[in-house]
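Q: Make up one entry.
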Amino acid sequence: MTEVSRNSNLGAARKAKQDEFYTQWADIQREINAYLEYDPDVFRDKTILLPCDDPEWSNFTKFFALHFQEYGLKKIISTSYAPNSNAGAAFYQPTIFEIDDPQYNEKKSYERGRVFTLTREDADSQGRVDIDNLRWEYLKGDGDFRSEEVTQLRDQADIVITNPPFSLFREYTRWLISGNVEFSMIGSNNAITYKEVFPLIKENKMWKGGTANSTDMVFSVPPGIEVKESDRLKAERLGYSSSDEVRFTRLGNACWFTNIEHGRRHEPMQLMTMEDNKRFNRKIVRLGDLAYPTYDNYDAIEVGFTDAIPRDYSGVMGVPITFTDKYSPEQFEILGLAAGNIRGLAGIPTTTGKDGPYIEGKLKYGRIFIRHRKPERSEH
């Protein structure tokens, strides 16, 4: 291989790998605990699929293998991509699960994905089931979740949990919904505005997870990936120090999306009246007469901060997309969205025919339109 082609391959690999972020154990633990708090048996007798995963680098398989018996799991299925399928061959190294195994084949390891399984029948002589009992074999294909092979594994599963590449989040969501499975996955907060995602949130078929909303999440990244110094330092302040062996970065807009029930999404927001917000909410007070303006083209008021939603307003309100971090379906009804490529799905009629929420001719950033299910009657 020439130096030019080698550098080209490394560049392609780095570009592909930039989309890979490995979730930290603590973030998995916190999110899973939110589901267990609501239903201690949520995973009992369930088969869990962990696609886009590699036990050598990722914590998902390790986590569920460790808790296999505690959660009463029936089976774990984990799949990984072939290095050649995502330009990762330049950084590929055989995993500890492969290299000492008689079935290891260097050519297959570059071209094929792998599937790792753990069942109750894999218990050791003491009856324990953990990651040491994990079995693996090569897939026939490269491990892409859209393949027929991995889709068949999805159809065997009750729950799918993973951190998919953010660039494939739309496709991943469609794939999950078409499989009619429970799921929990990490994505960008901006995914709320995707036309594949927002209707699911509106129809209460998908919601934010129980944790890591509006906070930084720390991820480790593959070898060879550069990390911004500011992100490295932020991860370090959060307790994750990078080294030659592992590098950490942080993403401020990462969050969990799920259709697994958790009690935290049913907690109503504690809100003030409109009058009290104007008197005591500093964010609103500084706006003065501009507090709660009406839109030029929607019969709704602008509420620029989630904590400034008035509890006594009965009409339609436009709120930031981060509202979904605290959204309780018993407290609010989501009517629609005006943002990005789905302004046409606003759900309420415009008064001018012009899409997007405008105030005095200026377009506001994406807004979700909501109203109280049972607004408090104002005393003023």
Remarks:
- Residues 1-17 have pLDDT under 50 and may be disordered.
- Residues 26 and 110 are 31 Å apart (CA to CA).
